[in-house]
Amino acid sequence: MTVYVGGKPIQCLLDSGCERSVISRSVVPNVRLTCSRYSLTVANKANLPILGDTTLHFEVDGNQYEANVSVSPAIDDFLLGSDWLEANGVKWDFTTGTLHFGNCVIHAYRRTLGKVCRRIMVSEDYIVPACHEANVPVKMLDKDIPHPTDNWVIETKQLSSRVMTVRTLIDGKQKRLVAQVCNYSDEPYELKADYYLARRP
Protein backbone atom coordinates (compact mmCIF):
# COMPACT_ATOMS: atom_id res chain seq x y z
CA MET A 1 0.00 0.00 0.00
CA THR A 2 1.06 3.64 -0.40
CA VAL A 3 1.77 5.65 2.74
CA TYR A 4 3.00 9.22 3.16
CA VAL A 5 6.02 9.96 5.33
CA GLY A 6 6.65 13.68 5.72
CA GLY A 7 4.33 14.26 2.77
CA LYS A 8 6.38 11.96 0.53
CA PRO A 9 4.63 8.87 -0.91
CA ILE A 10 6.40 5.54 -0.41
CA GLN A 11 5.36 1.96 -0.98
CA CYS A 12 4.81 -0.03 2.18
CA LEU A 13 4.97 -3.82 2.46
CA LEU A 14 2.69 -5.69 4.86
CA ASP A 15 3.98 -8.97 6.28
CA SER A 16 2.02 -10.85 8.93
CA GLY A 17 4.91 -13.32 9.22
CA CYS A 18 7.37 -10.61 10.28
CA GLU A 19 7.28 -9.92 14.03
CA ARG A 20 8.99 -6.52 13.89
CA SER A 21 8.33 -3.53 11.63
CA VAL A 22 11.45 -2.32 9.79
CA ILE A 23 12.31 0.62 7.54
CA SER A 24 15.25 1.46 5.30
CA ARG A 25 17.65 4.12 6.52
CA SER A 26 17.43 5.67 3.05
CA VAL A 27 13.74 6.46 3.68
CA VAL A 28 14.47 8.23 7.00
CA PRO A 29 18.09 9.43 6.59
CA ASN A 30 17.92 12.24 9.14
CA VAL A 31 15.67 10.76 11.84
CA ARG A 32 17.25 10.48 15.28
CA LEU A 33 17.49 6.89 16.48
CA THR A 34 17.43 5.25 19.88
CA CYS A 35 19.39 2.14 20.80
CA SER A 36 17.56 -0.97 19.64
CA ARG A 37 16.83 -3.94 21.88
CA TYR A 38 15.94 -6.15 18.92
CA SER A 39 18.05 -8.73 17.13
CA LEU A 40 16.60 -9.47 13.69
CA THR A 41 17.33 -12.12 11.09
CA VAL A 42 16.32 -12.47 7.46
CA ALA A 43 14.76 -15.56 5.88
CA ASN A 44 18.07 -17.40 5.50
CA LYS A 45 18.90 -16.77 9.21
CA ALA A 46 21.58 -14.18 8.45
CA ASN A 47 21.62 -11.26 10.89
CA LEU A 48 19.97 -8.06 9.69
CA PRO A 49 22.09 -5.04 10.71
CA ILE A 50 20.07 -2.56 12.80
CA LEU A 51 21.16 1.05 13.35
CA GLY A 52 18.51 1.80 15.97
CA ASP A 53 14.80 2.33 16.52
CA THR A 54 12.44 5.24 15.97
CA THR A 55 8.76 6.09 16.12
CA LEU A 56 7.59 6.84 12.60
CA HIS A 57 4.55 8.99 11.84
CA PHE A 58 2.84 8.41 8.51
CA GLU A 59 -0.45 8.92 6.69
CA VAL A 60 -2.78 6.46 4.98
CA ASP A 61 -5.81 7.81 3.10
CA GLY A 62 -5.68 11.04 5.10
CA ASN A 63 -5.54 9.22 8.45
CA GLN A 64 -2.57 9.57 10.76
CA TYR A 65 -0.76 6.52 12.14
CA GLU A 66 2.49 5.75 13.90
CA ALA A 67 4.72 2.72 14.20
CA ASN A 68 7.75 1.93 16.30
CA VAL A 69 10.22 0.55 13.78
CA SER A 70 13.79 -0.68 13.58
CA VAL A 71 15.98 1.09 11.02
CA SER A 72 18.34 -0.90 8.80
CA PRO A 73 20.81 0.12 6.07
CA ALA A 74 20.37 -3.29 4.42
CA ILE A 75 16.80 -3.04 3.14
CA ASP A 76 15.16 -0.77 0.58
CA ASP A 77 11.60 -0.74 1.90
CA PHE A 78 9.20 0.16 4.69
CA LEU A 79 7.78 -3.06 6.12
CA LEU A 80 4.93 -3.19 8.62
CA GLY A 81 4.95 -6.47 10.51
CA SER A 82 2.56 -8.31 12.78
CA ASP A 83 3.42 -6.00 15.70
CA TRP A 84 1.80 -3.04 13.89
CA LEU A 85 -1.03 -5.09 12.35
CA GLU A 86 -2.07 -6.39 15.78
CA ALA A 87 -1.68 -3.05 17.56
CA ASN A 88 -3.97 -1.39 15.02
CA GLY A 89 -6.56 -4.16 14.89
CA VAL A 90 -6.03 -4.76 11.18
CA LYS A 91 -8.46 -7.25 9.65
CA TRP A 92 -6.95 -8.79 6.53
CA ASP A 93 -9.25 -10.57 4.09
CA PHE A 94 -6.86 -12.66 2.00
CA THR A 95 -9.64 -13.75 -0.37
CA THR A 96 -10.40 -10.22 -1.54
CA GLY A 97 -7.01 -8.74 -0.66
CA THR A 98 -8.55 -5.97 1.46
CA LEU A 99 -7.43 -4.61 4.81
CA HIS A 100 -9.71 -2.87 7.30
CA PHE A 101 -8.23 -0.72 10.06
CA GLY A 102 -9.59 2.45 11.62
CA ASN A 103 -11.42 4.39 8.92
CA CYS A 104 -9.35 2.81 6.14
CA VAL A 105 -10.23 0.11 3.66
CA ILE A 106 -7.13 -0.69 1.61
CA HIS A 107 -6.73 -3.10 -1.29
CA ALA A 108 -3.39 -4.87 -1.03
CA TYR A 109 -1.43 -6.23 -3.97
CA ARG A 110 0.87 -9.21 -3.94
CA ARG A 111 4.46 -8.19 -4.56
CA THR A 112 6.15 -9.80 -7.52
CA LEU A 113 9.63 -10.90 -6.51
CA GLY A 114 12.49 -10.55 -8.96
CA LYS A 115 15.89 -12.14 -8.87
CA VAL A 116 17.57 -12.62 -5.52
CA CYS A 117 20.17 -9.93 -4.83
CA ARG A 118 23.15 -10.28 -2.54
CA ARG A 119 23.77 -7.15 -0.52
CA ILE A 120 27.38 -6.04 -0.19
CA MET A 121 28.09 -4.64 3.27
CA VAL A 122 31.24 -3.14 4.82
CA SER A 123 32.55 -5.88 7.11
CA GLU A 124 34.47 -3.69 9.58
CA ASP A 125 34.96 -0.01 10.43
CA TYR A 126 37.27 1.50 7.84
CA ILE A 127 38.66 4.96 7.11
CA VAL A 128 39.60 5.86 3.54
CA PRO A 129 42.33 8.54 3.74
CA ALA A 130 41.93 11.84 1.91
CA CYS A 131 42.89 11.72 -1.78
CA HIS A 132 43.34 7.96 -1.66
CA GLU A 133 41.93 4.76 -3.12
CA ALA A 134 41.48 1.87 -0.70
CA ASN A 135 40.43 -1.78 -0.74
CA VAL A 136 37.61 -1.85 1.81
CA PRO A 137 36.80 -5.24 3.38
CA VAL A 138 33.22 -6.25 2.53
CA LYS A 139 30.86 -9.19 3.02
CA MET A 140 27.64 -10.47 1.54
CA LEU A 141 24.64 -10.11 3.83
CA ASP A 142 23.09 -13.30 2.42
CA LYS A 143 25.99 -15.32 3.74
CA ASP A 144 24.11 -18.63 3.66
CA ILE A 145 23.63 -18.38 -0.12
CA PRO A 146 26.69 -19.94 -1.79
CA HIS A 147 29.07 -17.39 -3.29
CA PRO A 148 29.24 -17.43 -7.07
CA THR A 149 32.14 -19.44 -8.45
CA ASP A 150 32.51 -17.26 -11.54
CA ASN A 151 33.87 -13.73 -11.62
CA TRP A 152 31.44 -10.92 -10.80
CA VAL A 153 31.46 -7.15 -10.42
CA ILE A 154 30.70 -4.59 -7.73
CA GLU A 155 29.31 -1.63 -9.66
CA THR A 156 30.19 2.05 -9.22
CA LYS A 157 28.18 3.89 -6.58
CA GLN A 158 28.41 7.50 -5.37
CA LEU A 159 28.78 7.52 -1.57
CA SER A 160 29.14 11.30 -1.23
CA SER A 161 29.94 14.22 -3.51
CA ARG A 162 33.61 13.22 -3.76
CA VAL A 163 33.65 9.59 -2.58
CA MET A 164 32.61 6.62 -4.69
CA THR A 165 33.05 2.90 -5.13
CA VAL A 166 35.05 1.88 -8.18
CA ARG A 167 33.82 -0.87 -10.49
CA THR A 168 35.55 -3.84 -8.87
CA LEU A 169 36.03 -7.23 -10.51
CA ILE A 170 35.78 -10.03 -7.94
CA ASP A 171 37.31 -13.46 -8.39
CA GLY A 172 34.56 -15.88 -7.40
CA LYS A 173 37.11 -18.26 -5.85
CA GLN A 174 38.55 -15.82 -3.34
CA LYS A 175 37.38 -15.91 0.27
CA ARG A 176 38.29 -12.37 1.34
CA LEU A 177 36.12 -9.81 -0.42
CA VAL A 178 37.14 -6.18 -0.91
CA ALA A 179 35.62 -3.25 -2.78
CA GLN A 180 37.68 -0.37 -4.12
CA VAL A 181 36.61 3.02 -2.79
CA CYS A 182 38.05 6.32 -4.07
CA ASN A 183 38.13 9.37 -1.83
CA TYR A 184 38.76 12.48 -3.93
CA SER A 185 38.09 14.84 -1.05
CA ASP A 186 40.57 16.55 1.28
CA GLU A 187 39.09 14.81 4.34
CA PRO A 188 39.19 11.17 5.51
CA TYR A 189 35.96 9.28 4.82
CA GLU A 190 34.69 6.85 7.47
CA LEU A 191 32.74 3.72 6.60
CA LYS A 192 31.05 1.91 9.48
CA ALA A 193 30.67 -1.86 9.72
CA ASP A 194 27.42 -3.08 8.14
CA TYR A 195 27.17 -0.01 5.90
CA TYR A 196 25.20 -0.95 2.77
CA LEU A 197 27.74 -0.44 0.01
CA ALA A 198 26.25 -2.11 -3.05
CA ARG A 199 24.32 -5.12 -4.30
CA ARG A 200 25.31 -8.05 -6.42
CA PRO A 201 22.55 -9.72 -8.51
Whole-number total of structural domains: 2
CATH superfamily of the largest domain: Acid Proteases
Main sheet summary: 6 strands, mixed
Q: Kindly identify the CATH topology of the largest domain.
A: Cathepsin D, subunit A, domain 1
Number of helices: 1
Runs in which pLDDT lies below 50 for 5 or more consecutive residues are 112-116, 143-148
Q: What percentage of residues falls in helices of 4 or more residues?
A: under 10%
Silhouette = elongated
Summarize the SSE layout with pairings:
Blueprint: E1 2-5, E2 8-14, E3 22-24, E4 40-41, E5 47-48, E6 52-60, E7 63-72, E8 78-80, H1 82-87, E9 91-93, E10 98-101, E11 104-107, E12 118-122, E13 126-128, E14 132-140, E15 152-154, E16 157-160, E17 163-165, E18 168-170, E19 177-183, E20 189-191, E21 196-200
Parallel strand pairs: 2-8, 3-7
Antiparallel strand pairs: 1-2, 3-8, 4-5, 6-7, 9-10, 10-11, 12-14, 12-21, 13-20, 14-19, 15-18, 16-17, 17-19
